[in-house]
Amino acid sequence: MNTIELMPSIRRALARRDFTALNDILDDAPAADIAERFAREPDDISTLFLKGIALKHCAEIFSYLPADKQLRIAQELSDDELARLFTEMDGDDSADVFNMFEPVRRESILRRMAHKEREDMLRLSSYEEGTAGSIMTSEYVSINERLTVSEALNKVRQTAPDAETIYQVYMLDDQQRLTGTMSLRQLILADPLARLDSVMISDVVSASSDMPQEDVARMISHYDFLAIPIVNHDNKLVGIVTYDDAMDVVEKETTDDFHRAGSVGVLEQGLSSTSLFTLYRKRIVWLVLLVFGSLFSGAGIAHFQGLIEAQAALVIFLPLLIGSGGNAGSQAATLMVRGLGTGEVNIRDWTSLLGRELLISCVLGITMAVAISPISYARGNFDVACAVAISMVAIVMVGSLLGMSLPFLLNRFGLDPATASGPLVSTLCDSCGVLVFFSVASMFISAATGTPHVSCG
Amino acid sequence: MNTIELMPSIRRALARRDFTALNDILDDAPAADIAERFAREPDDISTLFLKGIALKHCAEIFSYLPADKQLRIAQELSDDELARLFTEMDGDDSADVFNMFEPVRRESILRRMAHKEREDMLRLSSYEEGTAGSIMTSEYVSINERLTVSEALNKVRQTAPDAETIYQVYMLDDQQRLTGTMSLRQLILADPLARLDSVMISDVVSASSDMPQEDVARMISHYDFLAIPIVNHDNKLVGIVTYDDAMDVVEKETTDDFHRAGSVGVLEQGLSSTSLFTLYRKRIVWLVLLVFGSLFSGAGIAHFQGLIEAQAALVIFLPLLIGSGGNAGSQAATLMVRGLGTGEVNIRDWTSLLGRELLISCVLGITMAVAISPISYARGNFDVACAVAISMVAIVMVGSLLGMSLPFLLNRFGLDPATASGPLVSTLCDSCGVLVFFSVASMFISAATGTPHVSCG
Questions:
Q1: How far apart are CA B256 and CA A416, in angstroms?
Q2: What percent of chain B clears pLDDT 70, i.e. is strictly above it?
Q3: Domains and CATH numbers, chain B
């Protein structure tokens, strides 16, 4: 929180090119805050700063910068500098930057890295974006299960400077297969002479490297894990995903779901750093699609043109009725989208939830019909009030069932359920609402005296 | 993941009342999974199970149960049993359950707890719901700053069985004020003979006990902390909040925001465990409010009744125009609500974001006007096409500016910005849309030949 006060001294030291003073300041300052400040500094200042400070600080701060800033700064660094930087950074972070480069540059950087780091980089960068493999790190502590607890503690001490976490340790058999796990706390409390395989937790919860990253993040949150081991199809340990990366994944996925639910396309970066043109592009696609969706409502209205000409006052109730269907539908869709998003609701629950929704939406519709009846009676007459009330119940039920079913349908066809956004549900409900209302109204109006009295204004 | 396979053997052991076998099974099984299973079992079975197994397992599994289930099981336990259970549980979890009891029972349980635990419970349960104090734990490792690294490691070893985390250690001066912090990793790597105050990180990031819990969670995520120290106004250390509790807070807050954005009230429990009546109550309030909001649109339409009777075909374009305003407004509101929710957008950014929105919404409106013009020209004539196009630009701009400003306005008045839901924005946009469209249309229609030709159907 004191980084705001630190910035002037950082700027002064940078102006003097006094990197010793800078490193002293950075020893105590949180890298996340420094990165947040420098994300807004001009690129040449940031590059000068990162080139001058100690590699350990540079790697940490660089990891926290936004992707586009990382790429621009990387253009100013030599391949040698990048090879050193990538070696110092956590494997999962460096692989993300590495993957943004052209093949030629990747090749050149790899040639400058030591054998082990090169292998790690090649392996980590080969996993598909969005999978557990793409966010895992290979800097974990693994120990042969036949060693003793005290030997394991020694290994932890040796690995401490490099591993991403030393607080969860994994046991392997001679074929490098994952057979157990222990937390550092359990190791400290265990008998130092005991063999690991006699004290370790052998029922290890692990994930496969091709599992979607949001599922892995959900597992970490469910089990309150510090890290989850990632295995390949032979149950060989290939990496770990840590809780902090899981938190980032959850935040990004939630933002994407939120935006989808508002009919905005998925933004790669934060709102403030997204260009105006990108924002325009992410919004216009859905808006135009929905405009054409609205044409169905227009066609419905055109079909009832005669009725509207005879009974223009009916139009007064149109926004209210189609709006209510859209609102009830948005509510139902929101509940389902979030339920599916947190894993609390499963696609198998659809039928039981449908039953609940049928009941709730019916009672919701009746309540709203009762609420609006005095007004529609005052504005029109008994027939108009009946037509509005019956339409209200029908439209709210149709909207609710549509809103709750759409996320499941989308999921069934492999699409993201959050695409069942409020605006999409509202637009669909509009068309249904127009048809329902004017159909019901035409029954009542023709059944009644022909031209019932409707007062307006 | 193997808990599904474990459940039959758990059930068999429970039927035989073989608690030794049960404890053996639980030694290796993740408590989160066991709790998830027993949350769905009848209360008497769950109580029998929890009463029989070892206290350590009972405390862990009980902590993972949903609040309503915890309360029902607690009714079946004696005050002695609860006092033992609360002593074994993490302080933040037990305080949550404790706070659900009547004052008389709280008193009786406290009398049965040891002095230190009683003090902790009283202190933790006194913090207001929703603050950092209400989710913090007092089971942390703190050490006087004048001790050495090796003495600190000894203290960590002694505290390991009880502390919620031993991986972050806090240094205090003689007045119990927080002066520094070190991770266990840093302790392991430091010179064992060094005094702590010479090697510790002395620029500690901490939070105050009355800070809102979502802000604390955001700090933990921002700094990738394992835990954050909580201090009182004298900078005395009173507790820590750990990353796993932060993840839970983020998930709950996000769900609340999601539901608000869909105009559903905040649900205390998950969707499946919420009763039908509660769901009805959480939805009907907004639906009825919005129905009455829609009456403004109705009044607007009533005002233009004459125009509608003369030009019924204009109604064809009504759902399309008011829908587009609502959609653009929902998009803008979604972007702002999520931006404010993640802390990426600040209330001070309002004016600069308003400028961007003005520009984007203008271009969005023009694009949509162009897209719809051929259709409105074909359906109507040049005047109708002009009226629709001009209305479209105006309505999309009004909707967007309304949608983006509303979250800021709500925030300004101390309300949750997520209350600026899609349905609320749509309903507000509907009224504006009706007024704009018919005003523009009446200018064009009276300016034109009087009764221009509009073909329908």
A1: 20
A2: 96
A3: 3-129 (1.25.60.10), 141-242 (3.10.580.10), 276-447 (1.10.357.20)
